[in-house]
Design brief:
Radius of gyration: 18 Å
CATH topology: Rossmann fold
Number of helices: 9
Number of strands: 10
CATH architecture: 3-Layer(aba) Sandwich
Oligomer: single chain
CATH superfamily: P-loop containing nucleotide triphosphate hydrolases
């Protein structure tokens, strides 16, 4: 792991009406690391991810990507950022009326000038990567929940983004599909993936993360290596480390 930050979050503050969600978030994502972000329900884990790609606007603070504060960007500049920072939505967020092929080809058609053959080759290669060969002509409604999530991952990865944001990727999956998703992400890690994983699923966080950040009372309470997290006696961390948590919180 190199020591150059891929992304910096500086003093991020966000309130929804009287509810103060973020009260000064400071966080660095290093290049080629997977950072897991844990926190109780309603602590604003997903709001951080959504702020990174402009789906939420923080009240204060900065999010720096290659030195640029993305919060200050206007519409056209955001398009460039979203080509380089991909968001994997919790439910896959596929277009119901498009086949798997057309769902994954959508960002390629929008952002690159490829021949139909080049496009087809890219889509097939990414489907192989997520263990979904031969599914090109299926509609999202014909896929299992696990396959929908993996198709969403394939669509997010097809432009070779620099950073991957994973929002509760294993929520609602059975153990077999969870393990398959974990293996998909491990493959991406071997290829040098940089990403943030928001999850309630502690075993998945431990399997995938290089470091684990805990969000508590509007701030980053701690950032630990996996070994440090497991060994911690901090009462806030112990809530996540307790055996009864399993895959939920």
């Amino acid at each position: 792991m190199t020591h150059s930050p891929a992304l910096q979050i500086l003093n991020l503050k966000k309130a929804f009406g009287p509810k103060k969600v973020h009260q000064g978030i400071n966080l660095e994502l290093m290049s080629h690391e997977c950072l897991a972000l844990l926190g109780g329900s309603g602590t604003g884990k997903s709001v951080i991810l959504r702020s990174i790609i402009g789906l939420e606007t923080p009240d204060e603070g900065e999010i720096r990507f290659h030195g640029t504060n993305v919060i200050a960007l206007r519409d056209l500049a955001w398009i460039e950022v979203r080509k380089r920072i991909a968001y994997v939505f919790q439910n896959g967020a596929l277009f119901d009326s498009l086949t798997v092929f057309e769902n994954i080809a959508y960002p390629l058609r929008a952002h690159l000038k490829l021949s139909e053959q080049e496009l087809a080759d890219k889509v097939r290669a990414i489907l192989e990567l997520v263990d979904m060969p031969g599914t090109e002509n299926l509609l999202p409604g014909e896929l299992s929940g696990g396959m929908q999530k993996r198709a969403g991952l394939a669509r997010a990865m097809v432009l070779d983004p620099e950073i991957l944001l994973l929002d509760e990727p294993t929520a609602g999956l059975d153990p077999a599909n969870t393990e398959r998703f974990v293996q998909n992400i491990l493959k991406l890690k071997k290829r040098g993936m940089t990403g943030i994983l928001v999850t309630h699923d502690i075993p998945t966080a431990l399997a995938l993360a290089d470091r684990i950040a805990v969000l508590h009372e509007g701030r980053i309470h701690s950032i630990e290596t996996v070994e440090g997290f497991k060994a911690s006696k901090d009462p806030v961390i112990l809530k996540f480390n307790s055996p009864q948590i399993g895959g939920h919180s």
